[in-house]
């Protein structure tokens, strides 16, 4: 079995949620040290890892980034962690590439930094790595993601995946409890929450913008069936292909929620649970990735750049460190039935292609 598959099978069996990747991070750090890389653990007091290969020769500082966390699911009523976004594959690819690059002496100038980042799904891991100084000396950073079957098949790759901005808003809606036989004495938080959902659904931004908003969680329970509930919680998922419209969308959603529940005598407190910025991708970094894909897969394996309504906290790196050139690519894996699906699966043979593309990227910048 190849190294990348060995790493994958181990990591796949120990899924851990964001900032809880204790076993995952320990395994990756141990493997990096055994391969001979210099490793710094617990970046910013988290499970984050930075490894390094220093050529000893002046040159640029290139970083490769992989995320480590799994997703939380409720399956047959039982909460669990499961790798349904492919982060175990990402870590396996970057770990294998790093060890091979050191063994082959591929870093001939400058330095290569390897970032293993926690908590991508929480939208907080990249920020923690930035605040921990992981990017302070980095000039270019490259990341990637496994792509669904409908976007990209095995033997293909996309040099630039343009992710959308994402904000998750939660409204806590307060009413007034009452007996269900005397509803006029209370304010029904459930009614108010339904009104808020409908109000948000009537919003209209410019048709020229690429955006969406939808309710994704609705929690309301008075504990009994003959009482008017006095509290409800609703979560909305907001998407925008660009960063600027997201601010307008958040303002309008918040206003619609607060005003619509106020019409019924309820109140709403709206807070942001998590945010991820839209993609900011550098042309030079993309050119490096594009050339590497062609080297590994040929011209026929290179697909056009594409946009996606998905989000990625990777883009906090160029947003928080504007001087860093960021590139983010997509690997064809025949992934079905979709990312974040409890039964997500993909062709494991594609991981070796990911290793080769990352190695080609490094050789082009530091070779």
List its salient traits:
eight-stranded mixed sheet; 18 strands; alpha/beta; four-stranded antiparallel sheet; Alpha-Beta Plaits; Aminopeptidase; 367 residues; 32% helix; single chain
Structural overview:
- It contains nine helices and 18 strands.
- The two termini are 28 Å apart.
- The longest helix is centred in the last third of the chain and has 20 residues, at 243-262.
- Helix 1 (3-12) packs antiparallel against helix 3 (87-103) and helix 2 packs parallel to helix 3 (87-103).
- A hairpin with a 2-residue loop joins strand 4 (71-75) and strand 5.
- The chain has two domains: 3-163 and 279-366, Zn peptidases (Aminopeptidase, 3-Layer(aba) Sandwich); 165-276, Alpha-Beta Plaits (2-Layer Sandwich).
- It has helices at 3-12, 22-35, 87-103, 125-131, 189-201, 243-262, 283-297, 316-320, 350-366; strands at 38-43, 48-54, 61-67, 71-75, 78-82, 111-117, 140-148, 157-158, 161-162, 165-174, 178-179, 211-219, 227-228, 231-240, 267-276, 302-303, 306-307, 325-335.
- Keywords: Hydrolase, Manganese, Metal-binding.
- Mn(2+) binds at residues 85, 87, 121, 145, 340.
- This is Peptidase M20.
């Amino acid at each position: 079995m190849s190294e990348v598959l060995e790493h994958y099978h181990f990591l796949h069996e120990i899924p851990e949620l964001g900032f809880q990747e204790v076993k995952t991070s320990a395994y990756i750090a141990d493997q990096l040290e055994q391969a001979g890389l210099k490793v710094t653990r617990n970046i910013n007091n988290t499970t984050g890892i930075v490894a390094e290969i220093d050529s000893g020769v002046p040159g640029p500082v290139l970083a490769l980034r992989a995320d480590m966390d799994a997703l939380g699911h409720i399956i047959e009523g039982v909460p669990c962690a499961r790798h349904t976004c492919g982060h175990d594959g990402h870590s396996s690819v970057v770990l294998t590439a790093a060890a091979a690059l050191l063994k082959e002496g591929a870093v001939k100038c400058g330095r290569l930094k390897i970032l293993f980042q926690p908590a991508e799904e929480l939208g907080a891991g990249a920020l923690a790595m930035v605040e921990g100084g992981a990017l302070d000396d980095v000039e270019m950073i490259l990341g990637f993601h496994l792509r669904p079957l409908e976007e990209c098949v095995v033997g293909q790759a996309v040099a630039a995946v343009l992710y959308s901005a994402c904000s998750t808003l939660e409204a806590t809606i307060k009413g007034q409890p009452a007996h269900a036989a005397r509803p006029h004495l209370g304010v029904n938080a459930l009614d108010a929450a339904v009104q808020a959902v409908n109000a948000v659904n009537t919003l209209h931004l410019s048709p020229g913008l690429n955006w969406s908003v939808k309710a994704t969680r609705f929690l309301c329970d008075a504990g009994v069936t003959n009482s008017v509930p006095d509290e409800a919680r609703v979560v909305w998922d907001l998407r925008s292909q660009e960063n600027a419209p997201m601010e307008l969308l958040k303002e309008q959603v918040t206003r619609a929620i607060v005003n619509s529940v106020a019409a019924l005598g309820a109140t709403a407190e709206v807070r942001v649970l998590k945010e991820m910025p839209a993609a900011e991708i550098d042309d030079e970094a993309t050119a490096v990735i594009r050339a590497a894909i062609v080297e590994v897969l040929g011209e026929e394996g290179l697909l056009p750049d594409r946009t996606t309504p998905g989000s990625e906290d990777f883009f906090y790196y160029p947003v928080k460190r504007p001087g860093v050139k960021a590139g983010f690519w997509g690997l064809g894996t025949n992934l079905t039935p979709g990312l974040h699906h409890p039964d997500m699966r993909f062709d494991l043979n594609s991981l070796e292609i990911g290793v080769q593309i990352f190695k080609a990227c490094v050789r082009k910048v530091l070779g």
